[in-house]
Amino acid sequence: MKTIAITGATGQFGAIALTLLQAKQANVVALARNPAKLSGVQARAFDYDKTDGQIEALKGINTLILVSSSEVGQRVVQHQNVINAAKQAGVQHIIYTSLLGADKENAVRALAGEHLATEQALKASGVNYTILRNGWYSENYTAAIPAALANGAFYGSAQAGKISSAVRADFAEATVNVALGEGHENRTYELAGDESYTLADLAAEISRQTGKDIPYIDIPVADYAAALVQAGLPEGLATFLAQCDEDASKGALFSTSQDLTHLLGRPTVRLADAVKSVL
What gap in Å lies between CA 204 and CA 165, rounded to an integer? Predict the structure, then answer.
């Protein structure tokens, strides 16, 4: 049985994937900055920034799931560190969680560059790779449902842009299926949900399930960022989220790819169910 390691094992995505791997009785090693947070699994200390110890932590690993770092702006160096260590440790296959349409002009501007640079580094490494270009998590929008209910409206700046999101667990399950499967080496998959919706559609679904009138109100990007700051978000994060909405209005979060359903072997979770789980 091959040994699979996963970085960021205590993060939101990594924790789901780790649980799925354990449920499938995979031989798994959890990599985390603080392995003491993990129990019931073989865990090793691993930091994207600290090259000392990375090679040793990856010894004996056949397949590495490289969950992209959460530190936007630092990812190129961090991911290159991991790729270098994996190659030196003898890892045979690296699975990387990239971004939907990372090589397209209308990708999410704040994220695409670092993901594309990592993809190029993977291809140059000589190690077998699988690139999973993850679309938007449904949770990125459904997390705003409580605020929408409190405000009596769902605010955003995505206009009528279509969003082909899926829940985080769908992307994690697809990643696990690739890690445990065969024939995925040196392939790139565009992963998106089966449904495509606008924020007006999302607001309508919230209204339907709650019995309340929750309209979608589109506002200018700068105003949306300012509103997010007023709601308590750091300015940098608020600007980022508003820009993502602007990118969505231009098609950055839309895709007709069926790769995710193919890797799952089932339909993706419906938007209505994602909303229901929050409510």
Answer: 17
Measured CA to CA, the distance from residue 141 to residue 256 in angstroms comes to 20
Closest CA to 199 of 238, 162, 242, 246: 162
Distance CA 186, CA 168 (A): 24
pLDDT mean across residues, the chain: 96
pLDDT of residue 204: 98
Q: What is the dihedral of CA 71, 244, 257, 137, to 10 degrees?
A: 60
Q: Counting every residue, how long is the chain?
A: 279
198: how many CB neighbours lie within 10 A of its CB? 20
Q: Can you say how many angstroms the Cα of residue 95 is from the centroid of all Cα atoms in its chain?
A: 13
pLDDT at 246 over 90: yes
What is the band of 1 on the pLDDT scale with cuts at 50, 70, 90?
confident
Calpha distance 235→220 (Å, rounded): 16
Contact 227, 138 (CB under 8 A): no
Q: Helices marked H in 102-192 — which ranges? A: 109-125, 139-142, 145-151, 168-180
The DSSP H or E segment spanning 56 is: helix 54-57
How far apart CA 187 and CA 50 sit, in angstroms, is 29
Which pTM was predicted?
A: 0.96
DSSP for 213-272, written as a single string: ---EEE--HHHHHHHHHHTT--HHHHHHHHHHHHHHHTTTT-----HHHHHHTSPPPPHH
Q: How far, in Å, CA of 18 to CA of 25, rounded?
A: 11
69 DSSP assignment? P
